[in-house]
Amino acid sequence: MSKLFLAFDIGGTTIKYSLVDEQLQLSAGGRCSTEHNRAGHILKQLQALTATYQQQYTLSGIGISTAGIVGDEGQIQYAGPTIPGYQGTPLKQALEQQSGLPVVVVNDVDAALLGEQLAGAAQGKAAVYCVALGTGIGGAYLDHGQLLNGAHATANSLGYTLYDPQTQTNYEQRASTLTLEHQLIDHKTSVPEAFAKARQQETPFTTIINNWAAEVATGLANIILLFDPEILLIGGAVSQQGDFLLALLNQALDPLLPPDLCQTELRVTQLADQAQLFGAVADFYN
């Protein structure tokens, strides 16, 4: 009988969950609110869902993708204000004690990268960097099967890099998708609509999108020069812009990189919001 794994993906407002089988098929999934983690709601919800699934299925393991920095013991080492009271939550310990199953806990950007290598755009690649563009900007680096997170698990904190003292802004304050959304408010236009208009060379959207892509490229150039990955994955909802987005970023990268030096290929992620679910359980497939 095929093994079944239970995968969770914990974001700021929503918990997604699904079964994943050995053929990488998702089933019996759903989603629920984090309730802003009121009274430790997230852990309680995971425990309740785990109990329900164990009553109905024979599980072989549990994987958790989560916002925040994950410590060595599978606890939340650091969490920002997006999820109140989350820091210190012992996810791995609590669910292992309850279920009697092995539990793996990984940061959500790490999970997205692991998922893309397992079943998406990074399959078969040894050195892959992933940049998640969204409310902020997160990074993850996988080198020959090893996630490299630094001595204190805070490596790849891309959003805080490239601080500019003149504007007093960091990278994510200039290049996140949220920043692009704010730039479009006066035009009463969403990010997907702005991209559609930019494809048609409509002003001022061509300029706005090009300027944003140039800001994104400044961070990508440093990643390429520092890590030399085979593949640099662009994730987040904006990755749905596909080849058009890649063309903008490659064009913006040209003046930032020495000619003929770098060979990294830019790709967009393939698995959309399923990547973290696959990545949460990726360790069970190794």
From TrEMBL:
Pfam families: ROK. Gene3D superfamilies: 3.30.420.40. Belongs to the ROK (NagC/XylR) family. This is ROK family protein. It comes from Loigolactobacillus zhaoyuanensis.
